[in-house]
Amino acid sequence: MMEELYIISGVAGMTGSELAGTLVGKGSRVIGFDNFFASSKEALKEIEDNDHFSFYEFDINNKGQMAQIKNQAMAMKKEFKRIIYINCAAVVHTEHFYHIDRTFETNVMGMRLFLDQAIEIGADIFINCSTSEVYSMNSWKEGGVSEEDYLLLANAEHSQRTSYAAGKLMTEFFMRDAVINNKIKGCSIRFANVYSKKELYPKHIIPHILMQLKQNGCVELLENSRKNKRTFLHNIDSCMAVLALVHSPDALDGSVYNVATDEEISIIDLTLFCAKKMGIEKPQMVFKGYRESDPERRMLNTDKIRNRTGWRPRVSLAEGIEMCIRELEG
Ligand SMILES: NC(=O)c1ccc[n+]([C@@H]2O[C@H](COP(=O)([O-])OP(=O)(O)OC[C@H]3O[C@@H](n4cnc5c(N)ncnc54)[C@H](O)[C@@H]3O)[C@@H](O)[C@H]2O)c1
After folding, report:
1. Pick from 156, 162, 202, 281: CA 20 to 30 A from residue 135's CA?
2. Ligand 1 pocket check: which of 99, 194, 302 to mutate, most ligand atoms within 8 Å of Cβ?
3. Distance (Å, rounded) from C-alpha 158 to C-alpha 173?
4. Which backbone phi and psi does 5 adopt, to 5 degrees?
5. What is the pTM of this model?
């Protein structure tokens, strides 16, 4: 009997693809699906022919396709000691956050159907990827915001951006409810600013800066970037956080875990840092456009996951940026 069967939604995305590669490499069986909303098959090329991996170009909102995943999981169930569902599928990027319909169906309804499926087939664990966006305009304080801090969401009069956070917050309640009613074990993760060397989405800040530097040594930034600071989490570390939680049974209590680094950097310094690494002495920066309700800082306290699982970020920002540059320069 094999140890673990993983069912991963959004498997071609940054965290999903790293998870699938790592798990298949360790001999686990992985079934994954993605509709390529923000990714491509390229992210899976190293494992697409591996016998331990099955991929489906499916949409989490398509009931017929999800029934096929369910039937396959059911049929394989008795060959495995544990079945683990990981929900990475989501409409993630900032430009969509302000449009409620774009995020609601996949992030809220899709998650709910996937959780129901895990419960129906008797899966052991469900990991729900939520977001640090739930901290909204209160995204930092001395020592970082922690899971038990009260949330002060911007309201509907203030910004539609909060609809994304409100939807993800709802998924945290679904997760917790399922665990406290003994339907499954699991938890939610609030990631902050994940990046990857394979990232395709050119509007994400790190690929955006690197691409523009490569093209013409000039980077167009939002007005917000004159002040904004962020921490950045490499997808190797987001993946390791998921696995640390999966293998820490006491942590799977339905609660929420912040996952981020402590390496805060301003967007201006990030641009200068990337330029220096690419051998560009004086990069030009042009500031255009403004994003409302964009927190100036986002600093998470990660003591909870560190104490309960031993997880800590391993990839420094300098190492991560170097990986991205090597990939870009081929
Ligand atoms: N990237 C970040 O900065 C960040 C921050 C906080 C939380 N998260 C959360 O982490 C999880 C993983 O995100 P990621 O960082 O890998 O981002 P990602 O965009 O790289 O991955 C999400 C994947 O989901 C897929 N997807 C979208 N809609 C789908 C649908 N209807 N059916 C099937 N697949 C669909 C996309 O094509 C993509 O491959 C998500 O739940 C996201 O909300 C990410």
Report:
1. 202
2. 194
3. 24
4. -110, 125
5. 0.96
How high is the pLDDT of residue 293? 85
> How much is the pLDDT for 200?
61
Q: How far apart are CA 298 and CA 144, in angstroms?
A: 8
Q: Look up the CATH number of the domain holding residue 158.
A: 3.40.50.720
pLDDT number for residue 201 = 65
Q: What 3 state SS string does 264-280 have?
A: CEEHHHHHHHHHHHCCC
> How many structural domains are present in the chain?
1
- For the chain, list residues with pLDDT below 70: 1, 200-201
H or E segment and range at residue 318: helix 317-328
Find out whether the beta carbon of 59 lies less than 6 Å from any atom of ligand 1: yes
Q: Residue 158: its pLDDT value, please?
A: 86
- Distance in Å, CA 67 to ligand 1 centroid: 21
> Does the residue 243 lie in any domain?
yes
The parent domain of residue 156 ranges over 2-195+231-263+296-314
- Evaluate whether residue 320 is within a structural domain: no
Ligand 1 atom nearest residue 105's Cα: 31
At residue 155, the pLDDT reads 85
Domain presence at residue 282: no
Q: Name the H helices within 55-132.
A: 63-76, 94-97, 100-103, 111-120
Residue 147: which of 181, 187, 199, 92 has the closest Cα? 187
